[in-house]
Specification:
- With 145 residues, the protein is an alpha+beta fold.
- The chain has a single domain, classed as Gcn5-related N-acetyltransferase (GNAT) (Aminopeptidase, 3-Layer(aba) Sandwich).
- 32% of the residues lie in helices and 33% in strands.
- The protein is built from 6 helices and 7 strands, in the order E-H-H-H-E-E-E-H-E-H-H-E-E.
- A 7-stranded mixed sheet has the order 1-2-3-4-5-7-6, with helices on both faces.
- Strand 3 (54-62) and strand 4 form a beta hairpin.
- It is globular.
Length: 145
């Protein structure tokens, strides 16, 4: 498995994964993340996991603020540590003086368990304040450094 910063040539594959997941993440569509993808790639704010040249996982973040925006791994590669390694790679890129954080919707808003369980139990994020973003109730999670 190779973990690297995405290149413009990767955009189509990243966009495909993003679009297949966007309906499961309230707020991503409203934030226009797909439209901003090339800018994020050019800034170095998209990380990918590749297996034999195929993108199997991606992480979109803002290095300048430390915000984890989106992370996804293809189903057949889940539970293999791909997301955890992408997150570790992200942490190494974010300046030490920046807080690492993300926002997650409530599980009740999806009718199932939301990603906050993964953030807290697997990655070690700590829950913080509830707020509203893009008209959607979310909770902020902070990663202790």
């Amino acid at each position: 498995m190779n973990y690297t910063t995405a290149k413009p040539i990767d955009k189509t594959d990243i966009d495909e994964i993003l679009n297949s997941s966007i309906q499961d993440f309230p707020g991503l569509k409203e934030a226009g993340i797909s439209d901003k993808l090339m800018k994020l790639i050019k800034r170095g704010d998209v990380l990918v996991a590749k297996d034999k040249g195929e993108i199997v996982g991606q992480l979109i973040y803002r290095r300048s603020t430390g915000e984890l925006i989106f992370m996804s791994v293809k189903p057949e590669y889940r539970k293999e540590g791909v997301a955890r390694e992408l997150f570790r790679f992200m942490c190494a890129q974010v300046p030490r003086d920046k807080e690492i954080y993300t926002f997650s919707f409530r599980k009740d808003d999806m009718g199932e368990e939301g990603p906050e369980t993964y953030f807290t139990n697997v990655l070690g994020f700590k829950p913080r304040a509830w707020m509203e973003r893009e008209g959607i109730p979310v909770q902020k999670f902070v990663y202790p450094r």
